[in-house]
Amino acid sequence: MAHDEPIAAIATAVLSKRFNHLVALDRVTLTVAQGTIFGLLGPNGAGKSTAIKILTTLLDASDGLARVAGFDVAKDPVEVRRRIGYVPQLLSADGALTAIENLNLSARLYGLRGKTRAARVRDALAFAGLEDLGDRLVRTYSGGMIRRLEIAQATLHVPEVLFLDEPTIGLDPVARRTVWDKLLELRQRNGMAILITTHDMEEAEVLCDELGILHQGRLVVTGKPEELKAGVGPAATLEDVFAHYSGAVLESGGNYREIRESRSAMRRLG
Ligand SMILES: Nc1ncnc2c1ncn2[C@@H]1O[C@H](COP(=O)(O)OP(=O)(O)OP(=O)(O)O)[C@@H](O)[C@H]1O
């Protein structure tokens, strides 16, 4: 490998995870370049969340290697954590606090202080489009506003790689599009690499530069949306690609169990 080759945002080699006898991730080898928005697709139980948890240092792999922003997740987890942001599947903002309080809390956790902290919180509030609502309790926000706040919280320290687990599940089409715009803005402004999991084929097509399909823990294909479609057939849609590689057909709107879970989390906040 040439010395001046840029460090990959994410690089895994034969990464595996077993839960007792269940193989949740099976020898996954993947590279995501800096500045790429990568969409990880796959039916329920395919291993998407497990992959994100290993890459964000929340879970140990059973075998194989994973490097994020150039650091080994097993050997240098603290260095990895400094360089990543993570928006989990269930809501993470605190509904009993205001947006400004939530942002200040995250900023403290990232070790930001004084004027830098105040400036970052101000910028983050503007980024989330919540300047006029920063003093309101988050439980009064819509789902889209909460998601924008969570993305702002997860990027206060300007990470090199941002992970989002089903970022737009349960959002209406307008709110969903606003979240896409925010992610595109982060990529454009900071060259951030972004890895999302999704069941939403429109999201995969419109937002993602590259896709990977996980099926029973195995990464069965990766490529740009256009390449994947062309590989399946002349008039193939991404739904066809998904069905071809995973044998699964998506119900419209994605997975219902998850939508129910995210809605019940929103109810808890409200
Ligand atoms: N802590 C755990 N203990 C045992 N099994 C687990 C654990 N976490 C995940 N699994 C199993 O590992 C497999 C992969 O789960 P994972 O949550 O990564 O899938 P996913 O692709 O994210 O699915 P979904 O789309 O439903 O979120 C599933 O069979 C799941 O039941």
Automatic annotation (TrEMBL):
GO terms for molecular function: ATP binding. The keyword RNA-binding does not apply. InterPro entries: AAA+_ATPase (IPR003593), ABC_transporter-like_ATP-bd (IPR003439), ABC_transporter-like_CS (IPR017871), P-loop_NTPase (IPR027417). Residues 10-241 form the ABC transporter domain. Keywords: ATP-binding, Cell membrane, Membrane, Nucleotide-binding. It comes from the Bacteria. The keyword Transmembrane helix does not apply. This is ATP-binding cassette domain-containing protein. The lineage of its organism: Bacteria, Pseudomonadati, Pseudomonadota, Betaproteobacteria, Rhodocyclales.
